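User: These chains co-purify. Model them together.
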Amino acid sequence: IAGITQAPTSQILAAGRRMTLRCTQDMRHNAMYWYRQDLGLGLRLIHYSNTAGTTGKGEVPDGYSVSRANTDDFPLTLASAVPSQTSVYFCASSGVAGYNEQFFGPGTRLTVL
Amino acid sequence: RKEVEQDPGPFNVPEGATVAFNCTYSNSASQSFFWYRQDCRKEPKLLMSVYSSGNEDGRFTAQLNRASQYISLLIRDSKLSDSATYLCVVSGSGYSTLTFGKGTMLLVSP
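Assistant: Joint model of the two components:
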Protein backbone atom coordinates (compact mmCIF):
# COMPACT_ATOMS: atom_id res chain seq x y z
CA ILE A 1 0.00 0.00 0.00
CA ALA A 2 1.43 3.37 -1.02
CA GLY A 3 2.13 5.83 1.72
CA ILE A 4 4.66 7.11 4.21
CA THR A 5 6.49 5.05 6.78
CA GLN A 6 8.36 6.32 9.81
CA ALA A 7 10.80 4.58 12.12
CA PRO A 8 11.06 4.06 14.97
CA THR A 9 7.48 4.16 16.24
CA SER A 10 8.71 5.35 19.60
CA GLN A 11 12.02 5.92 21.31
CA ILE A 12 13.35 6.86 24.72
CA LEU A 13 16.65 8.64 24.41
CA ALA A 14 19.21 9.94 26.88
CA ALA A 15 20.01 13.64 26.64
CA GLY A 16 23.10 14.33 24.59
CA ARG A 17 22.68 11.31 22.34
CA ARG A 18 22.40 11.54 18.58
CA MET A 19 19.23 10.24 16.97
CA THR A 20 17.97 9.91 13.41
CA LEU A 21 14.28 9.58 12.67
CA ARG A 22 13.60 7.89 9.36
CA CYS A 23 10.91 8.73 6.84
CA THR A 24 10.24 7.02 3.52
CA GLN A 25 7.48 7.64 0.99
CA ASP A 26 6.62 5.63 -2.10
CA MET A 27 4.23 8.08 -3.76
CA ARG A 28 6.97 9.81 -5.76
CA HIS A 29 6.02 13.10 -4.16
CA ASN A 30 8.39 15.99 -4.74
CA ALA A 31 7.97 17.70 -1.39
CA MET A 32 8.54 16.33 2.11
CA TYR A 33 8.21 17.86 5.56
CA TRP A 34 9.00 17.27 9.22
CA TYR A 35 6.69 18.54 11.96
CA ARG A 36 6.65 18.26 15.69
CA GLN A 37 3.42 18.31 17.64
CA ASP A 38 3.18 19.29 21.29
CA LEU A 39 0.04 19.70 23.38
CA GLY A 40 -1.43 23.16 22.97
CA LEU A 41 1.03 24.17 20.25
CA GLY A 42 -0.30 22.34 17.23
CA LEU A 43 1.87 21.20 14.35
CA ARG A 44 5.08 23.15 13.93
CA LEU A 45 7.23 22.82 10.84
CA ILE A 46 10.86 21.87 11.53
CA HIS A 47 12.36 21.47 8.04
CA TYR A 48 11.05 20.92 4.55
CA SER A 49 12.29 19.85 1.14
CA ASN A 50 10.60 21.04 -2.04
CA THR A 51 12.47 18.51 -4.16
CA ALA A 52 15.32 16.02 -3.90
CA GLY A 53 18.61 17.77 -3.23
CA THR A 54 17.08 20.85 -1.58
CA THR A 55 16.05 21.59 2.00
CA GLY A 56 14.76 24.57 3.92
CA LYS A 57 14.22 25.67 7.50
CA GLY A 58 10.78 25.84 8.98
CA GLU A 59 9.44 27.48 12.10
CA VAL A 60 11.51 25.55 14.67
CA PRO A 61 14.72 24.25 13.00
CA ASP A 62 17.22 24.68 15.85
CA GLY A 63 18.75 21.43 17.04
CA TYR A 64 17.61 19.50 13.96
CA SER A 65 19.10 18.75 10.57
CA VAL A 66 17.77 17.02 7.46
CA SER A 67 19.01 15.71 4.14
CA ARG A 68 17.24 14.77 0.91
CA ALA A 69 19.56 12.58 -1.12
CA ASN A 70 16.71 11.06 -3.14
CA THR A 71 12.98 11.44 -3.69
CA ASP A 72 11.85 8.78 -1.24
CA ASP A 73 13.81 9.42 1.95
CA PHE A 74 13.90 12.40 4.29
CA PRO A 75 15.70 11.61 7.58
CA LEU A 76 15.62 14.00 10.52
CA THR A 77 18.66 14.08 12.82
CA LEU A 78 18.93 15.37 16.35
CA ALA A 79 22.66 15.91 16.81
CA SER A 80 22.56 16.14 20.60
CA ALA A 81 19.10 15.54 22.03
CA VAL A 82 17.70 17.74 24.79
CA PRO A 83 14.57 17.17 26.92
CA SER A 84 12.71 19.99 25.12
CA GLN A 85 12.81 17.85 21.98
CA THR A 86 10.45 15.38 23.62
CA SER A 87 7.53 15.39 21.21
CA VAL A 88 5.62 13.52 18.54
CA TYR A 89 7.31 13.87 15.16
CA PHE A 90 5.36 13.58 11.93
CA CYS A 91 6.78 13.30 8.44
CA ALA A 92 4.60 14.34 5.52
CA SER A 93 4.79 14.57 1.75
CA SER A 94 2.96 16.34 -1.05
CA GLY A 95 3.05 16.37 -4.81
CA VAL A 96 3.88 20.05 -5.06
CA ALA A 97 5.14 22.21 -2.20
CA GLY A 98 2.73 24.74 -0.81
CA TYR A 99 -0.42 23.89 -2.76
CA ASN A 100 -1.23 20.22 -2.72
CA GLU A 101 -2.58 18.37 0.27
CA GLN A 102 -0.01 16.70 2.50
CA PHE A 103 -0.05 13.07 3.52
CA PHE A 104 1.32 12.14 6.90
CA GLY A 105 3.22 9.21 8.30
CA PRO A 106 2.12 7.54 11.55
CA GLY A 107 4.56 9.52 13.67
CA THR A 108 7.46 8.86 16.03
CA ARG A 109 6.98 9.43 19.75
CA LEU A 110 10.30 10.59 21.14
CA THR A 111 11.11 11.04 24.82
CA VAL A 112 14.42 12.63 25.79
CA LEU A 113 15.42 12.12 29.40
CA ARG B 1 -3.62 38.31 13.43
CA LYS B 2 -2.44 34.70 13.50
CA GLU B 3 -2.10 33.01 10.14
CA VAL B 4 -4.82 30.45 10.82
CA GLU B 5 -7.16 30.72 13.78
CA GLN B 6 -9.63 28.19 15.09
CA ASP B 7 -11.79 27.93 18.18
CA PRO B 8 -10.13 25.11 20.16
CA GLY B 9 -13.46 23.92 21.60
CA PRO B 10 -14.32 21.37 22.71
CA PHE B 11 -17.64 21.30 20.96
CA ASN B 12 -19.85 18.83 22.84
CA VAL B 13 -22.80 17.63 20.76
CA PRO B 14 -25.21 14.68 20.94
CA GLU B 15 -25.39 12.07 18.23
CA GLY B 16 -27.46 13.25 15.29
CA ALA B 17 -26.72 16.92 15.84
CA THR B 18 -25.44 19.34 13.24
CA VAL B 19 -22.26 21.19 14.15
CA ALA B 20 -20.24 23.85 12.33
CA PHE B 21 -16.68 25.06 12.72
CA ASN B 22 -15.19 28.23 11.32
CA CYS B 23 -11.58 29.07 10.66
CA THR B 24 -10.09 32.45 9.74
CA TYR B 25 -6.89 33.00 7.81
CA SER B 26 -4.73 36.07 7.38
CA ASN B 27 -3.09 35.62 3.97
CA SER B 28 -5.42 36.97 1.29
CA ALA B 29 -3.20 35.36 -1.38
CA SER B 30 -3.85 31.82 -0.12
CA GLN B 31 -5.02 29.51 -2.89
CA SER B 32 -5.48 26.11 -1.31
CA PHE B 33 -7.67 25.19 1.64
CA PHE B 34 -8.24 21.91 3.42
CA TRP B 35 -9.84 20.32 6.44
CA TYR B 36 -7.93 17.54 8.18
CA ARG B 37 -9.04 15.22 10.94
CA GLN B 38 -6.77 14.05 13.74
CA ASP B 39 -7.62 11.31 16.22
CA CYS B 40 -6.00 11.20 19.63
CA ARG B 41 -2.39 12.13 18.66
CA LYS B 42 -2.43 9.96 15.57
CA GLU B 43 -1.39 11.43 12.27
CA PRO B 44 -3.59 14.09 10.65
CA LYS B 45 -5.63 12.75 7.75
CA LEU B 46 -7.15 14.72 4.91
CA LEU B 47 -10.90 15.07 5.36
CA MET B 48 -11.64 17.24 2.35
CA SER B 49 -10.36 20.03 0.18
CA VAL B 50 -12.28 23.30 0.16
CA TYR B 51 -13.20 24.78 -3.19
CA SER B 52 -14.34 28.30 -4.00
CA SER B 53 -17.83 27.13 -4.92
CA GLY B 54 -18.16 25.04 -1.77
CA ASN B 55 -18.21 21.28 -1.75
CA GLU B 56 -19.95 18.41 -0.05
CA ASP B 57 -18.85 14.90 0.83
CA GLY B 58 -21.61 12.88 2.43
CA ARG B 59 -22.42 14.46 5.76
CA PHE B 60 -19.63 17.01 5.46
CA THR B 61 -19.90 20.38 3.73
CA ALA B 62 -17.05 22.86 3.35
CA GLN B 63 -17.41 26.51 2.38
CA LEU B 64 -14.89 29.21 1.51
CA ASN B 65 -15.50 32.93 1.96
CA ARG B 66 -12.60 34.78 0.38
CA ALA B 67 -13.99 38.26 1.11
CA SER B 68 -14.05 37.59 4.85
CA GLN B 69 -11.13 35.16 4.74
CA TYR B 70 -12.70 32.22 6.48
CA ILE B 71 -13.56 28.64 5.74
CA SER B 72 -16.18 26.53 7.42
CA LEU B 73 -16.95 22.88 7.98
CA LEU B 74 -20.48 21.64 8.60
CA ILE B 75 -21.09 18.14 9.90
CA ARG B 76 -24.65 16.84 9.71
CA ASP B 77 -26.08 13.88 11.64
CA SER B 78 -23.02 13.61 13.91
CA LYS B 79 -21.75 10.12 14.72
CA LEU B 80 -19.75 8.98 17.73
CA SER B 81 -16.93 8.25 15.30
CA ASP B 82 -16.80 11.93 14.32
CA SER B 83 -15.20 12.69 17.68
CA ALA B 84 -11.77 14.05 16.78
CA THR B 85 -9.83 17.25 16.33
CA TYR B 86 -10.44 19.07 13.05
CA LEU B 87 -7.57 21.05 11.61
CA CYS B 88 -8.02 23.97 9.24
CA VAL B 89 -5.20 24.16 6.69
CA VAL B 90 -4.31 27.01 4.36
CA SER B 91 -1.58 27.53 1.76
CA GLY B 92 0.59 30.59 1.39
CA SER B 93 2.92 30.80 4.38
CA GLY B 94 6.56 31.72 3.98
CA TYR B 95 7.87 28.16 4.05
CA SER B 96 6.60 26.81 0.72
CA THR B 97 4.19 24.71 2.65
CA LEU B 98 0.76 24.67 4.25
CA THR B 99 -0.16 26.38 7.50
CA PHE B 100 -2.08 24.26 9.98
CA GLY B 101 -4.45 25.66 12.56
CA LYS B 102 -4.24 24.26 16.08
CA GLY B 103 -7.53 22.47 15.63
CA THR B 104 -11.05 22.34 17.00
CA MET B 105 -11.98 19.41 19.20
CA LEU B 106 -15.35 17.74 18.64
CA LEU B 107 -16.87 15.35 21.15
CA VAL B 108 -20.01 13.51 20.10
CA SER B 109 -21.88 11.82 22.91
CA PRO B 110 -24.58 9.09 22.84
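Chain A touches chain B at residues 31, 33, 37, 40-43, 45, 48, 50, 56-59, 88, 90, 94, 97-107 (CB under 8 Å).
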